[in-house]
Amino acid sequence: MITKDLLSDIVSQAIKRGATDAEAIGIETTGFHVEVRLGEVEKLQEAASRGIGLRVLYEGRQASCSTSDVSLPAIDELVANAVEMARLTSVDEAAVLPAREELAKEIADLGLYDAAIAELPTERKIEMALAAEESARSFDPRITNSEGSACSTTVGKTTLVTSAGFAGEYRGSICGLMVAPIAKEDGQMQVAGWGDRQRILASLDSPEEIGREAARRALRKLGARKVATQQVPIVFEADAAEELLSDFFEAVDGFSIFRRASFLVGQLGEMIASPLLNVIDDGQMRGAVGSRPFDGEGLATSRTVVVENGVLKNYLLNSYTARKLGLRSTANAVRSLTGAPGVGTGNFFIQPGVYSPTEIIASVKNGFYVTEMIGFGFNPVTGDYSRGAAGWWIEDGKLAYPVEEVTIAGNFREMLRGIEMIGDDLRFRGKIAAPAIKLDRMMVSGE
Amino acid sequence: MIEPLKFFIERFNLTVSDIEALLGAALSKGGDYADLYFEHTVLNSLSLEEQIIKSANRAVRQGVGVRVISGEKTGYAYCDEIDLAAIRKAAMTAAHIAQSQAEIGPINVSSANPSHDLYPVAQLINEEPLPRKIELLNRVDRTARDYDRRIREVQTSLADEYKVVLIATSEGLLIGDVQPLARMRAMCIADDDGNLQSGVSGGGGRVGMDFFSDAVVEHYANEAARQAIVQLEAQDAPAGTMEVVLGPGWPGVLLHEAVGHGLEADFNRKGTSAFSGLIGQKVATELCTVIDEGTMPHARGSLNLDDEGNPTSQTVLIEKGILRGYLQDKLSSRLTGASLTGNGRRESYRHMPMPRMTNTFMLSGESTPDEIIRSVKRGLYAVQFGGGQVDITNGKFVFSATEAYLIEDGKVTAPVKGATLIGNGPVALTKVTAVANDLALDEGVGTCGKDGQSVPVGVGLPTIRISEMTVGGTK
Q: Do residues B401 and B348 share a domain?
């Protein structure tokens, strides 16, 4: 067991050895994962794991160490190494622990832990995975194969203690269910993965619903073809829009900003997008996957408006990037066991608009409805964007035929300004979520 | 040099008969096969940014993974403590995958040594004191800034790991390995009056400190700086289908995405790959021979033994255009009767092994790079890439160029912005119309992700010409 007392003790040992400041984190998780395929259990994995990380500052110099071995000699070595290494790095004036007055005063109960997930019997998890796959396979005779279905649960506890006086812990649970059926017709094979992830078991889509939706998604890719190269309006389906938003995060991450590695450097207060766009990061939404009571440095998480009516209001920051930029932390510090804190999202989303996806599609005479993207073609420094895409061609306001093996390209600056409609279909299936979005135009490269 | 069996036995107070009893416990509910994977890894990283050493990190990762195979089913469990009670508990958890009761005692194992010794290291990088490493990072920073006064920011890091593994199997194998790995990365941002561009370089392998000579790290610095400066002049990339020439080395990521993943045996056993059932069929032009080779000395993707204890090897995936073989792990080989290829890999003791690539490359041909460029009237010459991705089932793959040029009338002309290239795996190599004599392996920076597991890999390619490929530019 990793307790606040154990971590306090590690922090004191580090101070005793000469550290100016120290911060210890403990992560314990119990994970379960079952995969079924074609109606049979294929993999079953279960394990508990834990680790301790220690970050120390020595007169403005920083180092960190971690271990999955929590025995006393290993902890001694951890502390000794961290302090020793910190003496050898450089003085970095921005590397400080948050002061006492910045730290969370109380640990909010955000409903992140559901006993129903912790206590879910193995048999039930296997049944859920089987039911999701069965529902996909029985949906249509063209569903002929399957990559399988998986049900995973993770239950864990995060504990953080700092020499500035913070000591907190919270428990969390997550259940994920996902299935990837394969549709086949005329020699073409298509897979689609679909699933849900929630902290509260009762919020999870039913296995049957997940299976049917996955089957629909695989089937609608059958018969896909390339299209001619052309510049057209683009409609991103909600989960493709979510990927755009993940890329957008990179451009508002405080690290990209102080490194001047983002096209949004120096744009605070500027109109960077269509006035329709509102982007929020909220670390406090009850029972949500991206929520937590305090961030990786012990600050109470908050709700940050990133874009309001098209105007860039805030970057997402931890203490380090805030100091570098002369701003206040937005409590977006994330920590892994090793390394200095990074910046990560809470629940990061685009506020829904008023149009249904069907209405959005109906507004397009000739365009591309993007349902999937692959690859990593986003350059946050310049905003240049180029990724593989698949979906449906839109003709006269209707989905006409499936499309694959094309790319879509543009520049994020223009893409943000080119947002013309925002859908009403926001649904969180993880930390980042977006509704359907229509952009005025991007280059589709095909034949 | 550490002797793995001795290391685990002495450090964690275990005996060979404990290991034999644990294998017996793993098979106590039946099952066809069990293995134990002991791991102790120390990871170090050091980073420089804004001309100061910002952070030094060290992580110790240790534990044991227990796997039980029963027909097509796999049970897996692991523990972070390397002690008998914890491993026994994991073994009993993994054992549940099998449903029968077996009266099984300890399973005898006998200790063996790997048949390869691919990465003897003179000067262990994980034991190197920080000052020399700091000096190298400073050298990268200075060199990159000296390259051009428009280089405004340099970020560089040196990461190394030292992994000791011991694998025991119910087939009686007891074998270990010591696996060093190191990688340096350099990233530059150039700023020309507000026009910001980046360049990335780096390299490494299963090497020691001596590998990172001043000359080698200066090369990374100059290369990252050069790429950033070239991009300052880049025009919009073209859009549409055109002739594409790929340069040598890292552009081999094409093979990794277009064919490599699709030839991993798990997908093919399940019939879910676009390459399923194509053995013996023509999937490339006769110019193409593609190899996966885990036995290249000191290469990032090499291993003396795979993570299931089997020797790595050289596997011909495509021979003169004909699909020859798949990459096997233990499970797929048991189920299909195919010979092992030494491609069962895993990220750590917390992960089940699965078929993965090692170093994947195409053999040189007879053209020269110059001839190939001269032969192209209008096309794209792509020499540096970021990552790629593939949809195994429909075969569509992408890889993103980060440094590319137009070819006009047989000459390399203007640099163009980054663009994603998209193709179809089983078709892409049927459009290879020339292969040059300049095969190069990448410099040792590749990491491959599959099912949430990352493993180090290598890729390689000679200069090749592809008659048509879709380029995702804007113009």
A: yes
Which structural domain, as residue segments, surrounds residue B135? 4-231
Contacts of B419 in chain A (CB under 8 A): 377, 386, 407, 409
Closest A-chain CA to B131? A88
pLDDT at B122 over 90: no
Task: Note whether A445 contacts B: Cβ–Cβ < 8 A.
Answer: yes
What are the tens digits of pLDDT across the range A85-124?
999 999 999 999 998 999 999 999 999 999 999 999 999 9
CA separation for the pair A287, A109 (Å, rounded): 9
Q: What is the pLDDT of residues A293-339, one digit of tens each?
A: 999 999 999 999 999 999 999 999 999 999 999 999 999 999 999 99
Task: Using the 3D structure, point to which of B170, B197, B231 is the last residue of a domain.
Answer: B231
Question: Looking at the predicted structure, is the pLDDT value of residue A360 above 80?
Answer: yes
Give how many domains chain B has, as a whole number: 2
Binary contact (A443, B393; C-beta < 8 A)? no
Helices A122-137 and A207-219, packing angle to 10 deg: 30
- The class that CATH gives domain A4-219 is alpha beta
Task: Give B369 to chain A, closest Cα distance, Å.
Answer: 27
Spacing of C-alpha A328 from chain mean position = 23
**Against a cut of 0.90, is the pTM above it?**
yes
Distance to chain B for A443, nearest Cα, Å:
5
3-state helix, strand, coil in chain A (%, to 5): 25, 40, 35
Tokens of B217: 């790290």
Residues 67-86 of A with CB under 8 A from B: 67-71, 74, 78, 81-82, 85-86
Closest listed residue to residue A327, CA positions, set A341, A339, A313: A313
For testing the chain A interface, which of B396, B422, B450 should be mutated: the one with the most A CBs within 10 Å?
Answer: B422
Are B303 and B193 contained in the same domain? no
Break chain A into its structural domains and give their ranges.
4-219, 224-447
Same domain as B256, residue B189: no
Q: Closest Cα partner for A171 from A285, A53, A26, A43?
A: A26
Assess whether B208 and B262 both reside in one domain: no
